[in-house]
Specification:
Length: 116
C-alpha cells in the first residue's frame, strides 16, 4: 500500500489542473474580443458570444478539475462513483437549464452546474 505516494500524486494533479485552468482562463480572457469574430461575421451574434466569454473563461478551472477527477476515478477503478457523479451532475444541469431564459443563463448556470 503506497498511500502517501498516491496522495502526493493526487495533490500534484489537482494543483496542476487548477494552474492549467487559470492559464486557460487568462488566455480566453485576453482573446475575448477576437474569438467571436472567428465564428461569425454577424455583429449581433458576436456581441452575444462576447458576453459569454467571461463565463467560458471562468469555467476553465472547473472543466480542468473535472477532467482530472474523472481520470483519477477511472484510474482508481471507481466507475460506480464516476457514473453516480455524472448522473447527478447531468440531472442538476438539465434542471438548471430548464429554469433559464437566456443563452447567458443557460451557459453561465446550466453548463457550469454540469462541471461543478
Amino acid at each position: 500500500n503506497d498511500r502517501p505516494a498516491a496522495t502526493s500524486l493526487i495533490r500534484y494533479m489537482l494543483k496542476f489542473a487548477v494552474i492549467q485552468g487559470i492559464v486557460s482562463m487568462l488566455v480566453l480572457d485576453g482573446v475575448d474580443l477576437v474569438v467571436p469574430t472567428l465564428f461569425t461575421a454577424d455583429v449581433e451574434i458576436q456581441k452575444h458570444l462576447h458576453q459569454l466569454m467571461p463565463c467560458l473563461a471562468l469555467q476553465q478551472i472547473l472543466v480542468s478539475l473535472t477532467l482530472v477527477v474523472e481520470s483519477l476515478a477511472a484510474g482508481g477503478n471507481q466507475f460506480q462513483l464516476l457514473a453516480a457523479g455524472t448522473t447527478i451532475a447531468t440531472v442538476a444541469s438539465i434542471w438548471q437549464i430548464s429554469l433559464q431564459t437566456t443563452v447567458e443563463g443557460i451557459w453561465g448556470v446550466g453548463i457550469t452546474t454540469l462541471f461543478a
